[in-house]
Give the backbone structure.
Amino acid sequence: MARTPRQEITDSNVLSVIMGGGQGTRLFPLTKERAKPAVPLAGKYRLVDIPISNCINSGLRRIYLLTQFNTASLHRHISQSYKFDHFSRGFVEVLAAQQTFEDQTWYEGTADAVRKNLAHFLNHDFEHLLILSGDQLYRMDLRQLIKEHVDMEAEVTVAAIPVDRSAASSLGIIHIDQDRRITRFVEKPKDTALQDSVVLPPEWHGPLGIQGGGEKFLASMGIYVFTRDAIVKLLDNHFADFGKHIIPGAIQTNKVHSFVYQGYWEDIGTIRAFFEANLDTCSDLPQFNFFDMTAPVFSRPRYLPGSKLNGATVDHAMICDGCILNQAAISKSVIGIRSQIDSGTSLSRVVMMGCDYYESAVSIEEHRRAGLPRLGIGKNCKIDNTIIDKNARIGDGCVISPAGKPENFDHDLYYIRDGIVIVPKNGIIPHGTVI
């Protein structure tokens, strides 16, 4: 049989869909008032900026974002961040779950979300549907993924990353043959014997470009490419999820290929993962480098002044735009936009998301009269291993640390998740509070 001609990968034959996720319960309380893709990242970005930037840097500018929980801030961020000119076909558009006369249910899973919008997608001219997650940190040239999908004449391609045994039990593990065709898909294998059955043969490490010793498993990244015909046929059912239902079924009926990705990838699914990924941006050689301008991360343009450091001492920290740091000591911390930190305060391993606005003199005086702190962090505080969400007010003389406390705990003023203290959005920690 003659092979079909190779297609050039262009924006005109690829439609990108980013999954906005569910309620984001594992990222609570950061998702209490916002959708998971709208959670701030690295002081000035949002999680959703990562997959959108990967698409734009790959020349893919027709992008839909599917979401259904707390969508207001996400809509605002998208509308203020991503505007293409009138003479291009590019767009970034949010499709929130909606009830119709035909279907009155919400999105019940990743596959169900795509199915409910499939008629809308099919109005576009595309040959390949690219599906991405909205809560992962990685940098990928998506053209390589799609090119391999086309070259292998696959109907479905699953992006996979090598992981060790300790990570295999929490991810979907794929097993492939020598042609990289997927033969099995096992969701979060806990049993040792089951894990042994899907371990990657050591002799395949070299041909797949996998470096480093030890046993490896191929874990699904939750990134898929479908041909137009395949996505229509595979969603002609009531199955809810790609990883649990659609992909395992497709392996039996379709040509499902694996694309092995080599690079940093982090699923920002828990508070601990989110916290450590943020702090890693402060290291000498971060695993995800926001300074790489060959593939920049885009976000909302802001017109903020440069940050002022009035006698502050800073060691391995990310200081974002518009901050005022007085005589404070800051180490291994991310300080978000418009943050204000007063003298005598010490921060270590803190992710401070900053503020949405500068507080007026009238507001500062009103809060002072009420005995409440101003926006930011007051004087002589000591804070470690803490996430401070946006627009928080922390008074003078406060001590915040998870030391000696439960791994998970709820309080009227704060939360503890995965051994990390979280001051919620718009939270107030009164003067002299010791946590």
